[in-house]
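Q: I'm writing up a methods section and want to include an example of the input and output format. Could you take the sequence below and give the corresponding predicted C-alpha coordinates, formatted cleanly so I can copy it straight into the document?
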Amino acid sequence: MKKNTNSELPSTGSSNSFNYKPIRLNKFISNSGICSRREADQFIKLGMVNVNGKIIIEMGHKVLPTDKIKCDGQSIKATRPSYILLNKPKGFLAMSSSKKSKKTVQELINTSGSNKLVPIDDMGRTVTGLLFLSDDVNLRKKINHSKKGVRMIYKITLDKNITQSDIEIAKKSQLIFDKEIQFKDVSYILGGTKKDIGVECFNIPSSVIIKFFKKINYTIEHLDRVTYGSLSKKELPRGKWRSLTTKELSFLQML
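A: Here is the clean output for your methods example:
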Protein backbone atom coordinates (compact mmCIF):
# COMPACT_ATOMS: atom_id res chain seq x y z
CA MET A 1 0.00 0.00 0.00
CA LYS A 2 1.35 3.41 -0.92
CA LYS A 3 1.28 6.41 1.31
CA ASN A 4 -1.22 9.13 0.46
CA THR A 5 0.45 12.32 -0.69
CA ASN A 6 -0.68 15.82 0.18
CA SER A 7 1.35 19.03 -0.04
CA GLU A 8 -0.40 20.36 3.08
CA LEU A 9 0.71 17.48 5.26
CA PRO A 10 3.47 18.15 7.79
CA SER A 11 6.78 16.38 7.34
CA THR A 12 7.35 13.46 9.68
CA GLY A 13 10.65 12.11 8.44
CA SER A 14 14.13 13.44 7.89
CA SER A 15 16.12 15.78 10.08
CA ASN A 16 16.18 18.29 7.21
CA SER A 17 12.58 19.18 8.07
CA PHE A 18 13.48 20.50 11.53
CA ASN A 19 13.16 24.13 12.37
CA TYR A 20 16.44 24.70 14.22
CA LYS A 21 15.01 26.63 17.14
CA PRO A 22 15.86 25.75 20.74
CA ILE A 23 13.34 23.51 22.49
CA ARG A 24 13.06 22.49 26.14
CA LEU A 25 15.20 19.54 27.06
CA ASN A 26 12.29 17.58 28.55
CA LYS A 27 10.34 17.96 25.31
CA PHE A 28 13.37 16.85 23.28
CA ILE A 29 13.65 13.71 25.41
CA SER A 30 9.93 12.89 25.27
CA ASN A 31 9.90 13.45 21.50
CA SER A 32 12.49 10.71 21.19
CA GLY A 33 9.80 8.31 22.40
CA ILE A 34 11.67 6.86 25.38
CA CYS A 35 9.42 8.43 28.03
CA SER A 36 6.83 11.09 28.80
CA ARG A 37 7.73 14.73 29.46
CA ARG A 38 7.00 14.31 33.17
CA GLU A 39 9.33 11.31 33.33
CA ALA A 40 11.95 13.34 31.45
CA ASP A 41 11.72 15.98 34.19
CA GLN A 42 12.59 13.32 36.76
CA PHE A 43 15.59 12.15 34.74
CA ILE A 44 16.84 15.75 34.59
CA LYS A 45 16.33 16.33 38.33
CA LEU A 46 18.27 13.15 39.12
CA GLY A 47 21.25 14.31 37.02
CA MET A 48 20.78 11.50 34.49
CA VAL A 49 20.79 13.76 31.41
CA ASN A 50 23.98 14.79 29.63
CA VAL A 51 24.08 17.54 26.97
CA ASN A 52 27.28 17.88 24.95
CA GLY A 53 29.24 16.19 27.72
CA LYS A 54 27.76 18.24 30.55
CA ILE A 55 25.19 17.03 33.11
CA ILE A 56 22.10 19.25 33.10
CA ILE A 57 19.84 19.53 36.16
CA GLU A 58 18.31 22.89 35.26
CA MET A 59 14.59 22.69 34.54
CA GLY A 60 13.68 24.62 31.40
CA HIS A 61 17.10 24.15 29.81
CA LYS A 62 16.85 24.44 26.02
CA VAL A 63 18.69 22.44 23.38
CA LEU A 64 19.05 22.22 19.61
CA PRO A 65 18.47 19.13 17.44
CA THR A 66 22.21 19.19 16.68
CA ASP A 67 23.20 18.81 20.37
CA LYS A 68 24.55 15.47 21.58
CA ILE A 69 22.22 14.29 24.32
CA LYS A 70 22.31 11.21 26.53
CA CYS A 71 19.65 10.10 28.99
CA ASP A 72 20.68 7.48 31.54
CA GLY A 73 23.70 6.72 29.34
CA GLN A 74 21.57 6.22 26.21
CA SER A 75 22.18 8.48 23.22
CA ILE A 76 18.95 9.98 21.91
CA LYS A 77 18.24 11.75 18.66
CA ALA A 78 15.78 14.47 17.81
CA THR A 79 12.71 13.05 16.13
CA ARG A 80 9.48 14.68 15.11
CA PRO A 81 6.40 12.81 16.37
CA SER A 82 4.12 11.23 13.79
CA TYR A 83 0.36 11.79 13.80
CA ILE A 84 -1.57 9.31 11.67
CA LEU A 85 -5.26 8.94 10.81
CA LEU A 86 -6.27 5.47 9.63
CA ASN A 87 -9.57 4.23 8.27
CA LYS A 88 -9.36 0.83 9.92
CA PRO A 89 -10.69 -2.19 8.02
CA LYS A 90 -11.98 -5.42 9.54
CA GLY A 91 -9.52 -8.13 10.47
CA PHE A 92 -6.84 -5.90 12.02
CA LEU A 93 -6.32 -5.35 15.73
CA ALA A 94 -5.62 -1.98 17.40
CA MET A 95 -4.09 -2.15 20.86
CA SER A 96 -2.94 0.75 23.01
CA SER A 97 -0.92 -1.68 25.17
CA SER A 98 2.52 -3.06 24.26
CA LYS A 99 1.21 -6.62 24.03
CA LYS A 100 2.34 -8.35 20.83
CA SER A 101 -0.20 -9.76 18.43
CA LYS A 102 -0.56 -10.82 14.80
CA LYS A 103 -2.14 -8.67 12.08
CA THR A 104 -2.16 -5.31 13.86
CA VAL A 105 -3.06 -1.91 12.39
CA GLN A 106 0.63 -0.92 12.36
CA GLU A 107 1.08 -3.37 9.45
CA LEU A 108 -1.15 -1.11 7.32
CA ILE A 109 1.15 1.90 7.78
CA ASN A 110 4.20 1.53 5.55
CA THR A 111 6.45 4.17 7.06
CA SER A 112 9.62 4.01 9.12
CA GLY A 113 8.90 3.78 12.81
CA SER A 114 5.33 2.54 12.29
CA ASN A 115 5.97 -0.07 14.99
CA LYS A 116 6.29 2.80 17.51
CA LEU A 117 2.91 4.29 16.59
CA VAL A 118 0.33 3.60 19.28
CA PRO A 119 -3.47 3.73 18.75
CA ILE A 120 -5.29 6.27 20.92
CA ASP A 121 -7.68 3.49 21.98
CA ASP A 122 -8.31 -0.19 21.35
CA MET A 123 -10.33 -1.51 18.41
CA GLY A 124 -11.21 -5.16 18.00
CA ARG A 125 -10.81 -6.97 14.68
CA THR A 126 -14.51 -6.61 13.78
CA VAL A 127 -14.63 -2.84 14.45
CA THR A 128 -13.96 -0.41 11.60
CA GLY A 129 -13.48 3.30 11.10
CA LEU A 130 -11.31 6.20 12.16
CA LEU A 131 -8.33 5.51 14.36
CA PHE A 132 -5.73 8.03 15.52
CA LEU A 133 -2.19 6.76 16.09
CA SER A 134 0.90 8.60 17.31
CA ASP A 135 4.28 8.14 18.97
CA ASP A 136 3.65 11.37 20.91
CA VAL A 137 3.26 10.05 24.46
CA ASN A 138 2.21 13.42 25.89
CA LEU A 139 -0.58 14.05 23.38
CA ARG A 140 -2.01 10.55 23.84
CA LYS A 141 -2.12 11.07 27.60
CA LYS A 142 -3.64 14.52 27.17
CA ILE A 143 -6.44 13.19 24.96
CA ASN A 144 -7.20 10.17 27.15
CA HIS A 145 -7.28 12.21 30.35
CA SER A 146 -9.08 15.24 28.97
CA LYS A 147 -12.20 16.13 31.00
CA LYS A 148 -14.17 16.98 27.88
CA GLY A 149 -12.61 14.38 25.59
CA VAL A 150 -12.73 13.98 21.84
CA ARG A 151 -16.13 13.99 20.13
CA MET A 152 -16.81 10.71 18.34
CA ILE A 153 -19.68 9.50 16.16
CA TYR A 154 -20.27 5.80 15.60
CA LYS A 155 -22.53 4.17 13.01
CA ILE A 156 -23.98 0.98 14.48
CA THR A 157 -25.96 -1.95 13.07
CA LEU A 158 -27.70 -4.06 15.72
CA ASP A 159 -28.90 -7.67 15.57
CA LYS A 160 -32.54 -6.56 15.76
CA ASN A 161 -34.70 -3.48 15.53
CA ILE A 162 -34.30 -1.12 18.46
CA THR A 163 -37.42 0.54 19.82
CA GLN A 164 -37.71 4.24 20.58
CA SER A 165 -38.13 3.38 24.26
CA ASP A 166 -34.84 1.46 24.23
CA ILE A 167 -33.14 4.38 22.48
CA GLU A 168 -34.27 6.55 25.38
CA ILE A 169 -32.83 3.97 27.78
CA ALA A 170 -29.56 4.02 25.81
CA LYS A 171 -29.35 7.78 26.32
CA LYS A 172 -29.26 7.31 30.08
CA SER A 173 -26.07 6.63 32.02
CA GLN A 174 -25.01 3.02 32.56
CA LEU A 175 -22.27 1.48 34.68
CA ILE A 176 -19.83 -0.22 32.30
CA PHE A 177 -16.54 -1.76 33.46
CA ASP A 178 -17.12 -0.07 36.86
CA LYS A 179 -17.35 3.34 35.21
CA GLU A 180 -20.42 5.50 34.61
CA ILE A 181 -20.91 6.07 30.88
CA GLN A 182 -23.39 8.31 29.08
CA PHE A 183 -23.76 9.09 25.38
CA LYS A 184 -24.46 12.61 24.20
CA ASP A 185 -27.01 11.36 21.66
CA VAL A 186 -28.46 8.14 20.25
CA SER A 187 -30.76 8.20 17.21
CA TYR A 188 -31.95 6.31 14.15
CA ILE A 189 -29.89 6.85 11.00
CA LEU A 190 -31.78 8.69 8.27
CA GLY A 191 -32.49 6.31 5.39
CA GLY A 192 -31.55 3.22 7.42
CA THR A 193 -33.59 0.51 9.11
CA LYS A 194 -34.50 0.43 12.78
CA LYS A 195 -31.41 -1.72 13.29
CA ASP A 196 -29.23 1.21 12.26
CA ILE A 197 -28.40 3.91 14.81
CA GLY A 198 -25.89 6.67 15.30
CA VAL A 199 -24.16 7.31 18.62
CA GLU A 200 -22.44 10.58 19.54
CA CYS A 201 -20.13 10.53 22.54
CA PHE A 202 -16.85 11.77 23.99
CA ASN A 203 -13.84 9.50 24.51
CA ILE A 204 -15.82 6.27 24.67
CA PRO A 205 -13.98 3.37 22.99
CA SER A 206 -15.69 0.72 20.89
CA SER A 207 -15.32 -2.03 23.52
CA VAL A 208 -17.36 0.02 25.98
CA ILE A 209 -20.07 0.69 23.38
CA ILE A 210 -20.35 -3.03 22.60
CA LYS A 211 -20.70 -3.79 26.32
CA PHE A 212 -23.20 -0.93 26.76
CA PHE A 213 -25.65 -2.30 24.20
CA LYS A 214 -25.19 -5.86 25.38
CA LYS A 215 -26.36 -4.69 28.79
CA ILE A 216 -29.68 -3.55 27.29
CA ASN A 217 -30.00 -6.84 25.32
CA TYR A 218 -28.68 -5.85 21.88
CA THR A 219 -25.74 -7.33 19.99
CA ILE A 220 -23.74 -5.04 17.73
CA GLU A 221 -23.21 -6.63 14.30
CA HIS A 222 -21.28 -3.73 12.80
CA LEU A 223 -19.54 -0.83 14.54
CA ASP A 224 -17.92 1.93 12.49
CA ARG A 225 -16.38 5.15 13.84
CA VAL A 226 -17.19 7.80 11.24
CA THR A 227 -16.04 10.94 13.10
CA TYR A 228 -13.10 11.55 15.41
CA GLY A 229 -12.95 15.13 16.69
CA SER A 230 -12.85 17.36 13.60
CA LEU A 231 -11.67 14.43 11.46
CA SER A 232 -13.84 12.48 9.06
CA LYS A 233 -13.41 9.67 6.53
CA LYS A 234 -13.70 12.07 3.61
CA GLU A 235 -11.24 11.03 0.88
CA LEU A 236 -9.83 8.32 3.15
CA PRO A 237 -10.91 4.88 1.84
CA ARG A 238 -11.03 1.85 4.10
CA GLY A 239 -7.55 0.55 4.85
CA LYS A 240 -5.82 3.81 3.87
CA TRP A 241 -4.04 6.31 6.11
CA ARG A 242 -2.63 9.81 6.04
CA SER A 243 -0.72 12.22 8.26
CA LEU A 244 -2.66 14.94 10.05
CA THR A 245 -2.35 18.48 8.77
CA THR A 246 -0.97 21.15 11.08
CA LYS A 247 -4.47 22.60 11.48
CA GLU A 248 -6.01 19.24 12.36
CA LEU A 249 -3.28 18.56 14.90
CA SER A 250 -3.78 21.94 16.56
CA PHE A 251 -7.44 21.06 17.31
CA LEU A 252 -6.36 17.92 19.19
CA GLN A 253 -3.62 19.80 21.04
CA MET A 254 -6.18 22.33 22.32
CA LEU A 255 -7.99 19.74 24.44
